[in-house]
Amino acid sequence: MIKATPPLDGLLVIALEHAIAAPLCTRQLAELGARVIKIERREQGDFARHYDNRVKGLCSHFVWTNRSKESLTLDLKHPAAAGILARLLTRADVLVQNLAPSAAARMGLGYEALATDYPQLIVCNITGYGEEGPYASKKAYDLLVQAEAGFLSVTGSAEDPVKSGISIADIAAGTQAHTAILAALLQRQRTGSGCRIDISMLEAMVEWMGFPLYYAYDRQQAPARSGADHASIYPYGVFRSGDDKLLMLGIQNEREWVAFCELVLGNAALAEDSRFVSNTLRSENRKELQELIQQSFSAKTAAEIRASLEAAAIANASANDMAAVWDHPQLRALRRFVEVETPVGTVTALQPPGHSSAYDPRLTAVPALGEHTEAILEDLGYSEAEIAEFRTALAI
How confident is the model at residue 184 (pLDDT cuts 50, 70, 90)? Predict the structure, then answer.
């Protein structure tokens, strides 16, 4: 079957972005076919290029969030920048920015300043805490927003809170921004007009905190931190096998609890123990139950435990490290890994989730800093001499 072009083919997205949230948003738009022009600072570029050098000398964060884009270096404070931006925005469908609070507005790039000249433009602002309110000018990094959103209060052990191992607040904001932009593009088809979208990391993160928020509704006690275990369902967590491997399992109902006791633990009587006859009681007495389960598992290998869990139809998983994820048999069977180009050669990348039968996602190279500057400016109608002048004047 001949597949169609990706759904956002022909759309132009201008990205004034750095770090994770906005780059993740625009990468997803690029994979849907949009042309994304990433505007970066001269010489240094997006500071996420320099967090580490784990991918053949490139930064892991940058490689993850910036494939399928074009890189244009431009000093936004240079007098020549306004004219270049004007030509870009005349053609653009979407502007995404996550600059410092109020920075875009100070440069005349706020929605109100742009809407008259570019009525078609959808402007998406990603901030830490929003455009107004007492936190509007407050610096916001991922871990800080995790803390403000209450995430640390429900993650970790009873003794110590633990942050997420990934930039979850950034990811939440970028994902919500991506969805909001798609909705705005559909709305523009009906109205012919662009709009302003405001996404804060705090709101995006709090949206993902819906379960603990409602669990603690009307000032009730919030779920306790429970390590890798579920806060209110037990057993649902990590256990260690006799050959020192970690496994995750989850019991969701009483039928599974009985099967777990009989077929996995080999102790049918435990299912009738008065301490454990309901999920509420199992959760309240989880310390005692954990010891009993761990005592049984310590005499078996991980393979033996997994086999008995499968035989009992109990949901389970291996607690994989990154090496195991790269080699995950299910991802390999689904052919989800592909090779993409970078300035230092090809690297392996995971195709975006949501495999469509109608089109293939657009996965192209991770750009070098300023790799497309001349080509973009030529496409905007600038001559070689004008481009040379921009470079001499340190505008690009």
Answer: very high
| CA dihedral for 72, 76, 80, 85, sign (positive or negative) | positive
Q: Does pTM surpass 0.90?
A: yes
pLDDT tier for residue 102 given thresholds of 50, 70 and 90? confident
Specify the CATH superfamily of domain 12-208+333-392: Crotonobetainyl-coa:carnitine coa-transferase; domain 1 (3.40.50.10540)
Tell me, what's the pLDDT at 2? Answer: 83
Residue 150 sits at the vertex; the CA angle it makes with 163 and 146, to the nearest 5 degrees, is 45
Closest CA to 393 of 84, 95, 71, 37: 84
Average pLDDT of the segment spanning 110-125: 96
Q: What is the pLDDT of residue 76?
A: 95
For residue 179, give both structure tokens: 């969805």
Q: Spell out the CATH class of 236-319.
A: alpha beta
Whole-angstrom Cα Rg for the chain: 26
Q: What would the two tokens of residue 307 be?
A: 């086999």
Mean pLDDT of 192-210: 98
Backbone dihedral region of 218: left (phi > 0), alpha (psi from -120 to 50 degrees) or beta?
Answer: left
Q: Which of 54, 46, 96 is nearest to 74 (CA)?
A: 46
